[in-house]
Design goal:
This protein has 381 residues and is α/β, with parallel strands linked by helices. It is built from 10 helices and 21 strands. The protein has helices at 48-52, 107-113, 124-134, 150-159, 169-172, 200-206, 221-226, 245-257, 266-274, 367-380, and strands at 2-5, 13-18, 23-30, 32-42, 60-64, 68-69, 88-90, 93-94, 117-120, 137-143, 178-180, 188-193, 210-215, 231-234, 261-264, 278-295, 301-313, 320-322, 325-333, 339-344, 349-352. The strands form 3 sheets. Strands 11, 12, 13, 14, 15, 16, 17, 18, 19, 20 and 21 form an 11-stranded mixed beta sheet that branches.
Length: 381
């Protein structure tokens, strides 16, 4: 929820107000106006373009823990979707002049052009520590004429909607199906249910000879099987998985048919619900490109890219019986033991809570796309 005007912002005062009354004062960054969302922090030191354009950040105000942001400007190659999705942006020390051979414009100008209200010049370390201690919460950023007395601003923040119970995937997903062709020889067809998909994800599958049919979040089981898929994919996306009854129903239809299935991020939570597990909201979530995860099937530790504020509530110490056979937790976060992956033992289906497409981020988890291909090869054989 954002209102804004464009203009030179470096000297315009801005105020950040948290729902618990904590206030930070700085300067406007990007558009001037007001915005509301859930305050979260991202620990990545690079990849801010991919973060900003990730649909999973819809209705969130992102605090960057890296102190210097905007160094490489903005290019036309790295966005993960057609627009910036964050509700607001918080940085400590924005770059005065971008410097990169691919840069086309400054980050400040891009935020202003897309109406994204931000704030700079505040102590982002103190804000991050506050969110770690108190948890993610509602926040407002106000600049220019939107700045009022503190009590008025706090009341407006406390009236804004929270993330718990938010059903957002249909707001960010494609409205019309489209196809990403295979690179080189076509080997498989995958139906990808778009719950907030990033552009690099179907590209990673296309690199492996997969023709990807990207379908709206509202797609039915009949829509999925109309493309005659060898496999079905459920993407990342924003919002509370407890509200995602339609995707859960579609996934159960796929599981009943035994088609190879792969889910990431929101798709992992959808699989958890489809198997009968609950989900819950994390205190402050995992966001960044440096999160350690262990693949329990191999013992390997990966550094991975995350963006999730909810998690699956599944037992990590045993195999579980589900309506679709036995299931186990395949991956866990080494920071807090949160469930980071699920796998069915009696059907060709698995998921992870993080982003193996590595945009931005390390490439440790790229093998998961190969694992999906192996499932489809096995089913065809």
């Amino acid at each position: 929820m954002t209102t804004s005007t464009r203009g030179t912002t470096r000297r315009v005062p801005a105020v950040l107000v948290l729902e618990d009354g904590r206030i930070f004062r700085g300067r406007a960054y990007g558009a001037v106006g007001e915005t509301f969302g859930e305050a979260v922090f991202s620990t990545g030191m690079t990849g801010y373009q991919e973060t900003l354009t990730d649909p999973s950040y819809h209705r969130q105000v992102v605090v960057m823990t890296a102190p210097h942001v905007g160094n490489t400007g903005v290019n036309d190659e790295d966005p993960e979707s057609g627009r910036i999705w964050v509700s607001g942006y918080v940085v400590r020390d924005p770059a005065r002049v971008p410097s990169n051979w691919r840069s086309r414009r400054s980050l400040d100008d891009e935020l202003a052009a897309q109406g994204v209200v931000g704030i700079s010049g505040i102590d982002t370390r103190a804000l991050t520590r506050h969110l770690r201690e108190r948890g993610a919460m509602r926040v407002g950023i106000f600049s220019g004429d939107a700045v009022k007395d503190d009590a008025t601003l706090l009341a407006r923040v406390q009236e804004a909607p929270g993330m718990l119970g938010a059903d957002l995937s249909a707001e960010v997903a494609t409205k019309d199906a489209y196809v990403v062709p295979a690179v080189g020889e076509k080997k498989y067809t995958v139906a990808a249910v778009d719950l907030g998909i990033k552009g690099m994800t179907p590209h990673r599958m296309a690199e492996r000879g997969i023709e990807v049919h990207v379908l709206p979040a509202t797609a039915t089981v009949e829509d999925v099987y109309a493309v005659r898929p060898d496999g079905v994919f459920f993407s990342n996306g924003p919002g509370d998985p407890a509200t995602a009854d339609h995707p859960v129903s579609v996934m159960r239809g796929v599981l009943e048919r035994g088609t190879p299935l792969f889910g990431i991020c929101f798709g992992n939570q959808i699989l958890g619900r489809a198997l009968g597990f609950g989900t819950y909201k994390l205190k402050y979530g995992h966001r960044g490109i440096n999160q350690p995860v262990q693949d329990r099937t191999t013992g390997k530790v990966e550094v991975t890219a995350h963006n999730h504020g909810f998690a699956v509530d599944a037992p990590t110490d045993r195999v579980s019986d589900t309506p679709f056979g036995r299931a186990e937790v395949s991956h866990v976060c080494l920071n807090d033991n949160v469930v980071e992956g699920l796998a069915l033992l009696d059907k060709p289906a698995f998921s992870v809570q993080y982003h193996p497409e590595a945009a931005a981020g390390p490439h440790d988890a790229a093998y998961l796309f190969d694992r999906f291909v192996s499932l489809m090869e096995g089913q065809r054989a």
